[in-house]
Amino acid sequence: MINKLIAKIQKTKAPIVVGLDPMMKFVPEQIRRAAFAEYGETLEGAAEAIWQYNKGIVDAICDLVPAVKPQIAMYEQFGIPGLIAFQKTVNYCKEKDLVVIGDIKRGDIGSTSEAYAVGHLGRVQVGSSLCTAFDEDFVTVNPYLGSDGVRPFMNICKEEHKGIFVLVKTSNPSSGELQDRLVRTEDSSASGEAEARPVYEIVGSQVAVWGAECMPESGDYSYVGAVVGATYPEQGKILRKIMPRTLILVPGYGAQGGKGADLVHFFNEDGLGAIINSSRGIIAAYQQEKYARFGEVGYAEAAREAVLEMRRDIASALENRV
Amino acid sequence: MINKLIAKIQKTKAPIVVGLDPMMKFVPEQIRRAAFAEYGETLEGAAEAIWQYNKGIVDAICDLVPAVKPQIAMYEQFGIPGLIAFQKTVNYCKEKDLVVIGDIKRGDIGSTSEAYAVGHLGRVQVGSSLCTAFDEDFVTVNPYLGSDGVRPFMNICKEEHKGIFVLVKTSNPSSGELQDRLVRTEDSSASGEAEARPVYEIVGSQVAVWGAECMPESGDYSYVGAVVGATYPEQGKILRKIMPRTLILVPGYGAQGGKGADLVHFFNEDGLGAIINSSRGIIAAYQQEKYARFGEVGYAEAAREAVLEMRRDIASALENRV
User: Rounded to two decimals, what is the model's pTM?
Assistant: First the structure.
């Protein structure tokens, strides 16, 4: 799946993943009205609205980008009906041959992480049968519990030819509270002086180690990737060096403040190695002044325009990099 | 809700939470057979089996313990049908007046954590209506993303009188890879010498700060609790001091290796301050030699016996503490 993702990035010339994070305030009036008319202002109504909204966007962008990243929280908040909309979205995107990155940020003790891995990437044993549940292509994983929490995902990825992205340095303002803390390195005592590295470097080094165990039979990138926020380009530059064979999933472009020029540090010299996520900057583009001409009815075309502009922004940043 | 939980702990004399983590290998033959006969070896069949299994256990233990902790991964692995079984389990336990701790270990950037908080503890806006989705009483939260990822849960808890448990030091063998790393403290430079504290102490101190903002109108314990594994009693002792007004949720008793005598450090001198989780040690008690006399058919009574023994074990450890 990592090779498919890289090949699709090369083919579309778009190292872009569209975040399908459908907040109700993004859903155009006409879609909400139709859904509520059918199901009322209920969880089912909300789920129908976000599903129809997603479908419009996916149809408009599926030939332009290699991948989508539905954020499961935006569905889970609507309970079971919301999760059915998540499942439908995953299935529909796979039908359209998009690579689906489930942004689930799970991570737990071993046996529990195994259950998440099985449910989202693998097959679950029921009696003598194997059943599939959510069946994304990649998922995001939280590393706070250490290797026990990550290895079950690695094992399932190996069997199923799928992949993960481990959180290293997240895009949010408070990510530094824990991730930037300076940690004593193991060789501190040897050198006599206490050397220190931030937590995100420690986790990044670990991702590189896990990644080396998880290389596809051919290809340059591991199926253990990393999440590093666009909002922290300096850290991205360092992490790029620490994890040379890691595909970096970069959230935080656009709405969260990351700019095209900041992104170059996340790429390798081959022009690969990173895939940039934009969510509301694309799916709610019609709400920006720049795309207001499309109106609520044209929300999907506005999303398409925003993808094209993002592709140009990244391409020009990569061309002009020093 | 924190006051209700503390009151129920006092009333039942059982600082115990039963982990409803129904792996298929725990479900007795007769329940599996009946579920597969009705729904086949499908996700629906698995979901029916774990729901019937849970129901038996809940009926057998609901008068003995204050709370249950369903681990959502064990349901999520069976996709939508599994999550429907989770929802039914939450609702059923609440009908039985048990406090329900959803072990979901979510945590994300602000707007996304808000969606999780709304979906699991609060109410979600749909048009002009407010709908409830999973509606647990407490959930567990992962702190890797910092305050941004935790505050939305705190805000919803304040509105809804609910609570959270933040992961501090988890029970699994590899928890130390990140959580035990020694971090330079802020006053390092002032003293001239580099002082260092482990990550779990840093997170624990932060939980104490968050907790102080989240005290109920009356009562000694904050509705921001912490997770500290029974398998790390020395760390528990330190964290108990750092977070005096924090209720500590302690997993890892029994199957994971934690013993009664290790638990005393997690309690305050008032005999409160901790609630000990046991999952397979109770729900799969019938598979232990000690309870084999109950057989598969008597799995629920075996669970009841195991709760009674666990209550004695904890009480005797607390009586004999130095």
Answer: 0.96
